[in-house]
Amino acid sequence: MGCEHNNKTCMELVPIFSNLTFEEMMELSRITVDRKYEKGEMIYTAGDSGEKLFVIHRGKVKITRFSISGKEQVIRILEPGDFMGELSLFSHTPRIDNAEALEDTIVCIIGGDEMRELMTKYPTIALKVLEELSCRLGRAENLIEHLGIHDVETRIIETLFAWKDENGEVILGMSKRDWASYIGMSQETLSRKLSYFQDMNWIRMVGHRKIIILDEESLKALV
């Protein structure tokens, strides 16, 4: 049976299933199984056979790839309602990325055959999957452009502005090591630049996961 939380099935959290009726959602729930992963546990790794769609019900998952030299590149961070493994629905090739639980995580899983039957039965699901894939492709292209034309300070500042709340505070959803990988630099470079920003009184770092932006104008002047 599909996992439930507060009387909601896992799939009710996912935008690609938002147009299904209650009866259709129950049909989906019956072919869904759940699994718990502890922090640091791998959900799947590159080279694994696919044929499954994974939906995050609770927790966070890091999607990464490794270069030939062994350098890790963070592709994206997934949160409840996000899904992964969708490429295996359209291709029988092994997985090319890795999925790691960043915290204790519950994942709902649908087999590839069952998911393809659903997409045939309910074309809106297939269209929403393709829409999400198009969005991810666009984000990937933007990231490639971003890494190619911006210096390290600009990359750091732009992510700070993208992640800050209305109070100018940033709560990191990933470690600084993963943040550095995501924007294409070493952790040492990221830490050095953040320390410089703090020394200039442009930001204040609080613990390992909180950054308060103190002087937006000075930071913008560097971009």
UniProtKB/TrEMBL annotation:
Keywords: DNA-binding, Transcription, Transcription regulation. GO terms for cellular component: cytosol. It comes from the Bacteria. Pfam families: cNMP_binding (PF00027), HTH_Crp_2 (PF13545). SMART domains: cNMP (SM00100), HTH_CRP (SM00419). Residues 150-217 form the HTH crp-type domain. SUPFAM superfamilies: cAMP-binding domain-like (SSF51206), Winged helix' DNA-binding domain (SSF46785). Residues 16-136 form the Cyclic nucleotide-binding domain. GO terms for molecular function: DNA binding; DNA-binding transcription factor activity. CDD domains: CAP_ED (cd00038). This is Crp/Fnr family transcriptional regulator.
